[in-house]
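fwd from M.: "can u put these together and see what the complex looks like"

so here's what she sent:
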Amino acid sequence: MIPEFFEFYNPTKVVYSPGIASDFKAELNLLGASKYFIVSDIQVTGVFLDVPPNSEVKAVNACAEQVKTSGAEGLIAVGGGSVIDTAKAANILICEGGDLVEDHSGAQTLTKPLNPLVAIPTTAGTGSEVTMAAVIYDEENSVKMAFTDKFLLPDLAVLDPEMTASMPPRLTASTAMDAMTHAVEAYVGLQWSPVSDALASGAIELIFRNIVKATQDGSDMEARGSLLVASAMAGIAFSHSMVGCVHGMAHAAGGICQVPHGIANGILLPHGLEYNFEEITEKLARLAPVMGEEVSGLSPDDRAKKAIESIRRLTRKLNEMGALPLRLRDVGVPEERLPEIAEAAVMDGTSFYNPREVVAEEILVHLKNAY
Amino acid sequence: MGLFESSEKFEEVLAGFFRRVGETPEVAQKLLASKLVIRFSYTDPDVVIVVDCSGDEIDVRTGDTETKAQVNMSMSADIAHKFWFGKVNLMAALTRKQMVAKGPIPKILKLLPAIKPTYAMYPKYLDENGYGEYNIH
């Protein structure tokens, strides 16, 4: 089976090696800029450091002003998704001018290529280093604004597992579960394509093989590197195929009860798959062996159930290690707010891509299961 | 040259259709719940239509370039015409830049299930109002 239409576009050059973040001059020289400005949330001198945990318009404006004043011709973002998204949005203002929200929010609104952007992720979860999207919080209207455009794709993604080495076990586990959710939802989603499927299933396999190792031993650079590469693969996959109701519920839980995104995804992934089960049985069945399950002789239905059980077994293991909560009640969600979360999940843009219509009363059942 | 010979004709056809949609309770209620003000800017031929869902009923205004809209959709008249037949995949059109959407995209995407019944209404509307020559159904 093949979809009637799909497009695949990813010109971001990806380089991977332990230690490569300390020397990627050869790649930089190919981008055509001679002066770069660093955007980060880690302490070094001469960079824009004021990136909040969830990037905001004010921070983007301040960053763009500093970059313009410096005369830099390119940006290097060193950090997690918020840092990379701040740099992407600042790059819009630097090159296009105008008002970030009024003039540029939305899809395919940019008119020309932006200045060179290099992304060096320090977490292995968001995949923002290879996606054409940025999410910025608009403080004035209290809403998260999405920016989607091919010109937002970074020119270079420098994947160096040593840059993720300082992540504590909880962050390692939750960011990897974020990447896992990107990959699984891209694979089973309505906007799938054979290309995104290959990347998503490859990412799922890498995460299953390495998430426990990297959480157990943060100095295991092979495991960390595998998660970093998997995060980028999942990022490319979901940048094309989008995500569904797991993200819808996670966005809602994050907005209403401030549950960190990766943790929310880790808790909600099996429940979202159960919500969609009838519509995704066949594709989910194909993921079971990718997750390391023995499936010979089993029906598609049983294979699909095995895939969900495989995710549950993994999250239970991470929970036993003290690295991942398993229930919404454990992350400060009051039971009486579940209906509100269900309503918000329905209104989330991701529900459009979900294989099954997202209905508040029905998604609430699964939120209660996750509680 | 596109399917529509003049701005006047395209404006007459599409604004008329939007008004028909606004009078269809099952669709109108959902659009009004969004409270969105959407500006459609069409090219070849050039037409601007604002669909205002912020009040008690849907207000369709042609040539309105002044009102501040939360969402601005730009596309050719032919793509718009095909869209109302249900023959355009919105995400594919956005990806291929056949449509440009400025503003909160998730809110637009959420409206798609609500406007689904209009795909069947459009060809019927064309036939009933003497625009049968544009019917590609």
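replying to her w this: Chain A has 13 helices and eight strands.
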